[in-house]
Every structure is written in C-alpha cells, then in structure tokens.
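To illustrate the input format used throughout this study, we show a single complete record. The first block contains the structure-token representation of the backbone; no residue identities are included at this stage. The design step must infer an amino acid for every position from geometry alone.
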C-alpha cells in the first residue's frame, strides 16, 4: 500500500483546474503528496467562449488549452481516461482498463444541457455545451447558406435561412450575436440578400438575460432588434419534430433547419452513475448520452451501441465545506454542486466554479494538516455578455457598461483568468485569436490589429537597416574607437570628471578643469573673430572688386584666431584639445555657411538631437546609469562592446538571423543613444524600421526560416520555459526513461 497521500481530481474544467493549481502550489515540494487530474480530453475547454467557435469568429484551437501547457512545469499528473464508476467505500475510480486509488477526491465533472423531457427536443436540436457542439453548429450554419444559395423552392430556402435559438440566457444571446456577424459574411460569400436571413430568440420568460438589470437587458435587446433579430418572449416550446417544425405553447409553429437549445443546465450524466445524494434531480430521466455526454443530437450520428439512456441525474448536495454529505473525503466543485446560499441555489457560472474549487482545495489541505476548514461564501463581481465581437453589455460591481467598454472589460477578465491558467503563453494565444488574427473585422478594434504585410515587403528595409548598423560600427573604427592610444572616444557619454574604470572622462583628464575652460574660451574667441571677419566681408562685398580681398582678409583673420585657439588648446588635456578643435570646426563651418549665403532650417531642424546633452532627462540618465553602471567598464571594453554590438546587429539583420532579438537590441541601442543626447530626429527611422522587423521579417529570404523553429522547439522543451510559461505554442515534454 502506498504511504503517500493521493489526491485525485476528476474533471478538467474551470473547477478542476483551479483546485489542481491550488493543491500544486501547496505541495509542489512535498513528495509525500500525489496530485492526479483525470479528464476524458487532453485539453481544458474555455466554455464561455464556445459561441465564438460556433459563429466562426475564432478557430477551435482558441478555446482549447492543453493540459501540457497548464501542468507541464508542475507536479500534477494528468491522465486522459473515461471514468465509468467510483467505489467510495474502497476509494477507487474505475475506467474500462484502469483503476485509480485516492485518499481525497475532488469531483468537478460539470453539467450538461437540461431538456426538461420536452418531446423531440434533444433528438432534433443543437446544443452549445462542448467543443464538438460548437464545431457542429459552425459547419451546419455554412451548410445551410450553401444549400439556400442553390435552392429554387422559396419555402425550403426560407427554412434553410431560419436560425432559431431557444433560451435568452448568456449562452443563447452570445450565440445570436455571433450569428448576426457570421450571416453578414456568408451572405456576401453566397450572394444572398441579408433580408432573407431570419434569426430568432425564443424565451419562455418575459425578458432576456434575467440575471442582469433592466438597462443592460434593454440595451442588448435594442442592439439585436436593430440587426433584425426576432425576439419571442413568454413563448415556451412544447414540441419538436424531425421535420424542423417546433411548436410553442400558444400553438404557433416555427419552421427552421437550425434550432439551438440553450435553455438550462443540469448535472452531467456521470451524476447518474454515482450513488451520492442529490440536491435536485433532472426533470428528464430519459436523456440520451453518447461518448460526448448529453447533448443535442442534431447534426451528428451515433450508432445504437454508442447511445445510452441516462437515468436520474442531478446536482450533488454538498455541505458548507464543499464536501459530499455522504463521504467526508469526497469534495465537489463547479456546476455539479447543489448548495444554497442565502436561500438561493448557487448559479452555474464560472465564478461559482472557481470559488467553490478554491474552498474544496483549501479544505483538503486543512484535512491533511489538521487545520480549520473554510466555509463557502460566494461573492460574484458581475456579469458580461458579448453580442458578437463588436458589442456587449456588462454589469460589474454595480456599474453598467455597454459596447466597446463592456467588450474591453470582458477581454480583460478573460486575460486575467488565462494569466493564472498558463501565464504569458495562454494570454499571447488569446490576443492572437481575438485581435491579431481575427477575420472580417470582428473585434472591438475592427481589422486594424489583424492587418498584415507580407514579410517579403520588409526585406529591403531589413537589408538597409542592417547595412546602416554595419556602417555605423565601421565608421567608429575609422574614428579611432579601436585605437586605444588616443584615449577614450566615448567619454562624452559620461559626466565631467567621471572615471571609466580609473580613466577620467574627456572633460577633466590629463590636466585641470581650468585648462579645459581656457580651451573652450579660446574656441569661443575664434568663433567670435570668425563671425566678425564674416561681417566685415559682407560689408565690403558691396565694393565690387574689393569684396574678394575683404573676404581673403576675413579668412586670414579667422586663421589667426584659430592659431591662437590652437596655442591655448595645446596646453590642455588631449581630450580638451579635441573639444577645442570641434569648436573651431564649428566656427569655420559657420564662416563658410555665412560666406556662401548662409542657411537656417525654415521649420524643424531634423539634425538637432532629440534631447539636448544638458537637458534634465539626459542629465538624469547619464548620472543614474552611465556614471554609475557603465563607468565601471574600462573604456577599451566599452568601446569594443558598442562597435561590436552595432556590427553584430547589422550582420544579423542582413542575414535574417535572429531578427526579432536583433531588432529588440537595435531599439535598445537607439534608446540609449537618445537618452545620451546624441540621437537626432532624422535617425528615428532606426527605431520604427526595427519595430517592423519584429513582425517576422527574418522568415523571408532569411535564416530565421530554419533557425527560429529549431530554437523554438529547444526552448519549449526546457523546464524553465514550462515553469514560467514564457514560450509560444505547445510545450515539448520529454518522456522520462524508466
């Protein structure tokens, strides 16, 4: 017999995943506790987003998060199997081929649609309670448009283009929103007038979205009616037949080849297989179950041997600690529980699943460690309903939101959940599906985030950017950055008097600050004398032939001034000499400019630095980072590092090798140069082109076409990537050798 404490979680939905993650966090270093999660699928399904798949807004992969992605870096063991029964006395779960022993059990098998025993409904309707359901609806809807496009009979054509949704709760209304948008696309594709399409909501109660307040209900209804949706209230359905005719209680009939049932949830068929006390049982004791569970049978076929009649199923009664009232080591969570809070049964929503799972996991930990248990006190923060990809309504913490803001909040909540589920990996996948790869502008950003340019259009820009970086590096070599006998060529990036690993920066090395100041003053005098000479040249230019002599004298005067400046500079430090020389160059350049007619930019001086060297931002950056961290590096190493980085960036971009990292480093270098006060406005294109490079430019005529997939596989197989979720796609889990 095993001496370890065995915790088994049955069901990989919202509740099962939450309890597994909490237990793993507690026992990740405790080898005396085993955590096993069992599910019939190898992935977790985002049930709240199934309507997007059904309406062809996103792909099926968008609502699948594999258990490998969630648990590959944890101690949770995932088993894909179908449990057929549980022996609670011997603590064993049984499948067709295996048995799983437990000390503590968490049941979170969810719920399945409730058909209320209405004649012909399950047999002739679609449901939206699994990924398979969503795919069936998705394919069937397009099939109906294709059939209608070539149907000459008007009555049959009308029936093909009628889409009836029974139930005005979250699932029904969200599906209707998707059908509104999907029908627009299919009408264009199959050349059908959109006025021929009939979308209906059929609700037995007197209002839609009853869990929301009046204003969000009204907003949702107005939006749907504006888009041509018919809403029938107080219209309970009493019968459905195999010919696509559905009868209402008042005798009216609806003819539709597409009828989706979203009117209720009950415990899954698994609850009929276990002998736990139920708080409530289904009204229908003759539901049909297939290997997929209980669902609408329209659009699918299962042989008789794959069909079972489910008996009494329902929601399992639990106590305040989320324990079965029959067995204290059996805990339950999610849609399958029957629990009264403030005399009302808890709703079958995601927040209830997560919160009940948290209590169940906490109390298992309390049982093991002999601590006090927690009582379940649900706290719901609000509700959000999307009506297509561009509109929604929400009621959150007493605040109502509509349209863009409601949808933005829904996306934010989804990202928050996914971050806790699988971190960056899951969130990045969600953003890809919802925004960056969305089709037909079906998001709150329209098609702006999904517009793409082929990588080959970026090829010339990639080559040019790479060439410019190589030239930048080579030019620095020509300027003496590798000739260390000349002293530091990078001292201008540091404050006056700061040492680069013991060698003072140019502004104070080899002499005194006074000498540098004298040199600067001499340069200033040279500037002034040169300017005076120019003025004299301009005054005498009107004298005709004497203008040439005057200009010559001006040049001589400027030369004399330069000689004086040179004498002063020669007594200063080598770097101070450089500063004076640069000042002289500026003065003579100005003389030449003015002598040739002068030039000043009429508007924005693109050659001016973005931030001046003595600006507050540059001063802060220089004193905080350059004078502190980088001053520890010898100037020889620092200069080689800068030149080497520039050349490496250029070569990588030109070869299309590691283009994304090279682009990131390119942007980083530009930011450093900008904050050092030397990056001009006309150099900003370096940053913008580098951003374009991050969109996969290296895959067109570049080595990234082969290198990046290879690196991705290697990275995805590392424990670090799996623990941090910092990877794209699926993890590669290596099987342990026995």
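Output of the design step:
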């Amino acid at each position: 017999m095993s001496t370890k404490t065995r915790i088994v979680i049955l069901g990989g939905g919202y509740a099962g995943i939450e309890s597994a993650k909490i237990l793993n966090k507690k026992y990740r270093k405790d080898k005396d506790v085993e955590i096993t999660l069992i599910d019939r699928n190898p992935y977790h399904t985002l049930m709240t987003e199934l309507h997007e798949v059904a309406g062809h807004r996103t792909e099926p992969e968008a609502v699948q998060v594999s258990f490998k992605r969630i648990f590959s870096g944890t101690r949770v063991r995932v088993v894909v199997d179908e449990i057929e029964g549980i022996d609670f006395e011997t603590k064993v779960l049984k499948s067709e081929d295996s048995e799983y022993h437990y000390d503590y059990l968490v049941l979170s098998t969810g719920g399945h649609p409730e058909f209320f025993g209405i004649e012909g409904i399950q047999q002739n309707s679609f449901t939206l309670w699994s990924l398979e359901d969503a795919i069936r609806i998705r394919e069937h809807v397009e099939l109906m448009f294709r059939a209608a496009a070539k149907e000459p009979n008007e009555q049959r054509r009308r029936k093909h283009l009628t889409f009836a949704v029974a139930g005005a709760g979250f699932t029904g209304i969200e599906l209707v929103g998707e059908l509104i948008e999907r029908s627009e696309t299919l009408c264009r594709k199959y050349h059908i007038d959109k006025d021929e399409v009939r979308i209906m909501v059929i609700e037995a109660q007197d209002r839609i979205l009853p869990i929301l307040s009046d204003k969000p209900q009204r907003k949702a209804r107005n939006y749907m009616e504006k888009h041509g949706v018919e809403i029938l209230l107080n219209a309970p359905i009493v019968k459905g037949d195999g010919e696509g005719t559905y009868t209402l209680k008042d005798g009216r009939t609806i003819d539709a080849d597409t009828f989706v049932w979203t009117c209720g949830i009950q415990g899954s068929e698994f609850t009929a297989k276990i002998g736990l006390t139920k708080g409530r049982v289904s009204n229908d004791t003759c539901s049909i179950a297939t290997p997929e569970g209980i669902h609408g049978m329209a659009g699918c076929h299962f042989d008789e041997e794959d069909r079972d009649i489910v008996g009494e199923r329902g929601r399992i009664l639990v106590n305040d600690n989320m324990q079965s009232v029959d067995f204290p080591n059996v805990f339950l969570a999610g849609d399958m529980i029957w629990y009264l809070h403030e005399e009302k049964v808890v709703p079958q929503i995601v927040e209830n699943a997560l919160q009940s799972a948290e209590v169940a996991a906490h109390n298992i930990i309390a049982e093991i460690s002999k601590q006090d248990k927690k009582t379940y006190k649900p706290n719901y923060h609000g509700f959000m309903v999307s009506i297509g990809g561009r509109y929604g309504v929400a009621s959150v913490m007493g605040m109502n939101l509509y349209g863009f803001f409601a949808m933005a909040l829904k996306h934010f909540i989804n990202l928050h959940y996914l971050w806790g589920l699988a971190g960056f990996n899951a969130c990045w996948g969600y953003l890809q599906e919802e925004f960056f790869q969305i089709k037909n502008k079906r998001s709150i950003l329209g098609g702006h985030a999904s517009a793409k340019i082929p990588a080959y259009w970026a090829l010339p820009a990639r080559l040019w950017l790479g060439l410019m970086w190589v030239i930048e590096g080579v030019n620095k070599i020509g300027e003496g950055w590798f000739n260390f006998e000349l002293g530091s060529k990078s001292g201008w990036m540091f404050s006056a008097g700061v040492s680069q690993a013991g060698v003072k920066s140019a502004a104070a090395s080899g002499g005194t600050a006074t000498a540098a100041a004298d040199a600067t003053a001499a340069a200033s005098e040279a500037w002034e004398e040169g300017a005076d000479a120019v003025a004299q040249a301009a005054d005498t230019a009107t004298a005709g032939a004497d203008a040439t002599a005057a200009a010559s004298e001006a040049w001589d005067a400027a030369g004399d001034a330069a000689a004086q400046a040179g004498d002063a500079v020669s007594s200063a430090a080598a770097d101070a000499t450089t500063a004076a020389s640069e000042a002289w160059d500026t003065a003579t350049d100005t003389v030449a400019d003015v002598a040739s007619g002068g030039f000043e930019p009429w508007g924005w001086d693109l050659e001016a630095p973005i931030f001046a060297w003595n600006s507050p931002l540059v001063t802060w950056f220089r004193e905080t980072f350059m004078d502190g961290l980088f001053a520890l590096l010898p100037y020889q190493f620092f200069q080689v590092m800068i030149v080497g980085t520039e050349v490496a960036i250029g070569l990588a971009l030109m070869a299309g090798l590691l283009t994304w990292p090279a682009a990131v480093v390119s942007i980083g270098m530009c930011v450093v140069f900008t904050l050092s006060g030397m990056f001009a406005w006309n150099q900003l294109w370096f940053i913008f082109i580098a951003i374009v490079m991050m969109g996969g430019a290296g895959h067109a005529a570049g080595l990234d076409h082969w290198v990046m997939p290879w690196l991705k596989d290697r990275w995805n197989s590392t424990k670090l990537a799996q623990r941090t979720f910092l990877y794209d796609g699926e993890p590669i889990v290596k099987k342990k050798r026995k």
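Structural context for interpreting the output: Residues 48 and 217 are 19 Å apart (CA to CA). The two ends are 21 Å apart (CA to CA).
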